[in-house]
Write a structure and sequence with these properties.
It is built from eleven helices and no strands. It has 184 residues and is an all-alpha fold. It has two domains: 77 residues, no CATH class; 105 residues, no CATH class.
C-alpha cells in the first residue's frame, strides 16, 4: 500500500464526500494508504473545510468533526478484531503502542477466558501498571460482550475474582462450624 494517494483515489474520496458518504471516504483512504482508522478519519476531516471553502453548497452537509461518529459507525461494519482496534484507537496513547497482533492476542485471551493473560499482554505492550491494565480490560469486556455475546458471555465483571472465593470460603467455614456444634 502506498503512503501517497493517486489522483484517482483522491477523486474517489472527494466524490464520496460530495455524496455525503464520509465513512466511505475514510475507508477509501485507509485502503489506499494503509493508515489506521484515526489517521484516516483525521485526514478526511481535515479535507472537509478545504472542500467547503471551494464549494460551500456542495459540501454544506458535511461536518469537520464527528465527535467519534466515524469511528463508531466504521467500527460497526468491521470484523470483531478491527472493531476492537477502533476502540483501542479511541485512546491516542494506546493506538501507537498496540499492534494488530497484540490486539488479536488480547481478544483471543479474553475469548478463551484468560483475562490475566489479556492484562499481561496489555501491560507488556503499554508499560502500564496492573491497575491501569485491569481497568482497561474491564472496560473492554462489556464492549466485546456487546459485539459478540456468545463468544464473551463467560467473562465476569470486576469483583468476581478473589472476593467471591473468600466469601465462599467463609460461608463453607460457617456451615462446618454449625455442623460440628450441632453434632456435639
Amino acid at each position: 500500500m502506498a503512503d501517497q494517494l493517486t489522483p484517482g483515489q483522491f477523486d474517489q474520496i472527494v466524490d464520496a464526500l460530495a455524496d455525503g458518504r464520509k465513512i466511505a471516504a475514510v475507508k477509501i483512504y485507509r485502503q489506499a494508504t494503509g493508515k489506521g482508522l484515526k489517521e484516516s478519519k483525521d485526514f478526511v476531516e481535515a479535507l472537509i473545510p478545504k472542500l467547503k471553502e471551494q464549494n460551500p453548497e456542495k459540501y454544506a452537509g458535511l461536518s469537520e468533526s464527528s465527535s467519534g461518529q466515524v469511528s463508531v459507525l466504521c467500527a460497526a461494519t468491521l470484523p470483531l478484531d478491527a472493531r476492537t482496534r477502533a476502540w483501542f484507537e479511541g485512546d491516542d496513547t494506546m493506538a501507537d503502542k498496540l499492534s494488530n497482533e497484540q490486539i488479536e492476542q488480547i481478544t483471543a485471551a479474553l475469548g478463551g477466558g484468560r483475562k490475566i493473560d489479556a492484562i499481561k499482554i496489555y501491560r507488556e505492550a503499554t508499560g502500564k501498571g496492573l491497575k491501569e491494565a485491569n481497568d482497561f480490560i474491564d472496560a473492554l469486556i462489556p464492549k466485546l460482550k456487546e459485539r459478540d455475546p456468545e463468544k464473551y458471555s463467560h467473562l465476569g465483571t470486576r469483583g468476581a475474582g478473589c472476593g467471591s472465593a473468600i466469601l465462599l470460603g467463609i460461608g463453607l467455614a460457617s456451615v462446618l462450624v454449625w455442623i460440628v456444634e450441632s453434632i456435639a
